[in-house]
User: Fold these one by one.
Assistant:
Number 1:
Amino acid sequence: MQQSLPQISIKRAYEAPDISDGTRVLIDRLWPRGVRKADLEIAVWLKNVAPSSALRKWFDHDPAKWTVFQEKYLTELHRGNDEISSLLNLARSEKITLIYGAHDKIHNHAQVLRQFLNQTLSALEQE
């Protein structure tokens, strides 16, 4: 029996938490500016699923660099680490919301990470 794909949402850190978020996972290397820890209501902070500091600084939220940023970040994600494995396991078992601090809702690493998680989990389901 085929399982359904996991529910993975994304949400800015500046948006209010909601019960429908499921498990909230902060996916930034840096804490979001101006947000108190108590207000964010995260279950876990996985800094090492975020783009490397060098890639983040190079991208600098410049939409003109978006396509190359996606490719480079996906390369980093495919290298894997313990936090990526933990996030994949979490996403397999429950609804998660990836929390990020970027202002741009389209050109941000949460979009790339969600795509990576969905594709990876879909491939694992087909094995």
Note: The chain has one domain: 8-126.
Number 2:
Amino acid sequence: MKKLLFLLLISTSAIAQISLPVPLNIQSTYDKGTRSTDGKPGKNYWQNSADYTININYNPDTRLLTGTEEIDYINNSADVLHEIVFKLYPNIYKKGNIRDLAVEATDLTDGVTIQSISLNGNNSSFNIKGTNMIVPYTMVQPKQKIHFNIKYHYCPTKLQIKGQF
């Protein structure tokens, strides 16, 4: 009798379990097939990709870092891209930029200077806003590969935050 009562108690508590609501943004990933319910990527999941060749020179006396990059970027999405955004993290310390941490005036820099950028062999325009460098492009089609050549320089801050020197 005690076993039956125990089993009855366990079974009613299992039935009484309520399922939690699924947030709409999570449900939409299930519907699109970009995520499965176990959290793994779904059949429609994709990531854009890039291959980099980076050459840098650093002068410890002047603290000047100069570099060139060649980047092959592939749009693996189903969307047409109208711009590519590069992150210029050293610009966190650029004079006049907004940041969410206090920085001494002696730790501020002039930020990253882009000397030139070309896209598929042609000079390209760009716009820098804070730590974002936005490169407009008329249309990067799905599965299209584009090539960037970038020449830049900057002086890293002496302040060590988040692993940067």
Note: The domain at 49-154 is CATH 2.60.40.1730 (Immunoglobulin-like).
Number 3:
Amino acid sequence: YGLNIGGHIEVGWSYNFDNPSTHLNAGRVFDLEEQDPTLHQIDVFVERNIAASGEKFDVGGKMEWLWGGDARLIHANGLFDHYGFTDGPEEQFDLVQLYGTFNVPVGNGLLLTAGKFVTLLGYETINPTTNPLYSHTYLFGFGIPFTHTGVLARYQFSEDFWATAGIVRGWDQALEDANDAVSFIGQAGYSKDNIDFYLNVITGPEQPDNGSNYRTVFNPILVYRDSDRLTFAVDGIYGWELEAAADGGDAQWWGAAGYVSYKIDPMFTAQGRAEYFSDQDGARGLGTQLTEVTVGLNIRPLPDHQWGQGLLIRPEIRFDYAEDPGFDGEDTQWTFGIDAIYAF
């Protein structure tokens, strides 16, 4: 039947050199709790992948469950959200994705998706196996949504170019909706040889009980593979929202992150990231301008072993700077982090 079953396990630990009184790494997404070993994710999925085709109708889909500390931070409205980060157990369940896919044989093939799925936006993902580093950007954690519930339609215009458009319930909405309004999401993509380019957009009202104050985010992503070893990437966002600023006015936020990855050999890959994020209006909960630089190493101890090749260890050093003191009263933060992932 073409079913794939797999998943991953991720555990991590971090140390904050500034010894914050809260024992939290301010501004982080999943690596929040310093000096506290965290079972981030036990993730299991069942999927049937299908490709766009003009020849025949086909059906696929995916169901993905997650248990661990990260689930506390990604619950969608109305689905496993009776607990959160501050008022529930350290490890929680979340249904990250549950959707069906349908290939309609028109033209080159129209691929329809219906259900709950991760967002199209962003270079980084909830799934750690597709991220270059342990910690996440401010762009990922504060600038874009995590998941959506709705429908998507993707059409492959040529071998190199495609476009996706959809209607969703908004940012991180599932069985309930904060305002009973819909948002519109889209992506234009181009991939040829050593270049990938994506332009993502989402727009719609997101404030509780308000169907008129639109939130809009544009998100261009560029990936350039200089060789089999060296890869560069740039992830940018620009967003705005009516009456969302801390003072009640209109708000905007923007930022960019640059990545470089160099594969030294099958065992070691060096990673680097530099980021700037501005949320001076306070709409995304930060209320300042932030910069971070992270360097790390991806280590695969057993790259050629049948069972060991799924093991990945990622130590990193990260420096954060905030224009206004936001790190336990300081304007800088130094951290060391390390996680281990086993993908199966």
Note: The longest helix spans residues 138-143.
Number 4:
Amino acid sequence: MPPFGLFVTTFFLVSIGQAYNDSHANTFAASIKGAHRWLAIIHASYMAGCLIGPFVATGVATAGTNSQWYLFYTFPTSIGCVNLALILWAFRDSMRVEPHSGATDDTSEARDTAAGETSKNKDAIRLIADILSGRNVWLLGMFYFFYIGSQITMSGWMVEYLVDVRDGNLAQMGFVPAGFNGGCLLGRLLLAEPTYRLGERRMVLIYCVLAVGLQLVFWLVPNIIAASVAVSFIGFFTGPFFATGMNMGSKLFSAESHSTALAFIFVFAQMGGSLFPIITGVIASSAGVQVLQPILTALLVAMTIGWLLVPRPKSQPNPELHQE
């Protein structure tokens, strides 16, 4: 078996690549014509992977001593190779190396290059300062902070809650997260167009209220079937939030600051996704896993308030965005 340190190192490198890809993929998708559709597709693809995950994990976990779990990594490795090949093909025109035009003095060229790099660094620092001094990135980031926090907390703790508090069967409850992820997948595919056409701010607010109501059903109705259905519909109505927020960001931020602003928003989102499951675990270790319900309700209410605080974007998309 490979040493544990190798796992830590490779997961660290994979996370860097995913973070970089998340920021720029969303920026690119939000900058083309019909952005709400393309954002819905790429985020639905993500949820399709999350939907498959519990089934794969259950198969690996129940294989016993005969499990060759390490062969699982051949699957994401193969997908990564195919993905890399498709990206190289899709962006082949923008990755061509421009040839040098004529001979130049090496010293002068090196001096110009150093000056150019210094100027770029100063511009980057100034851009970051400008973004962080505005309220848009903080308010949209706060919405994502509570949104991703609620999603990860729910998907991570619902099985233990249903088993310990509702006396559910572990073998059956292990598939409830698949219903949640399946709801997210369908929501991102089916609700993207009506959300865009009927008004993103209005529709997301309606979805938030519905999610809070369904969360109360999950909490107050002592029935496992009702809880499973409520969780699936919470996933359905909250599914479009990520793509819709990215589309809103394309109107709140200029083309120059779009990528950097989204990167900071992703940081807030991942902070929520990392922080709240840990807080839930710490509290549950002393008070019991039943604390999941008030924590989830508070997160969804905070998410709703966060959305109300997001500034209203301009009526027209950013004119600097690509219309390919």
Note: Residues 258-287 form the longest helix (30 residues).
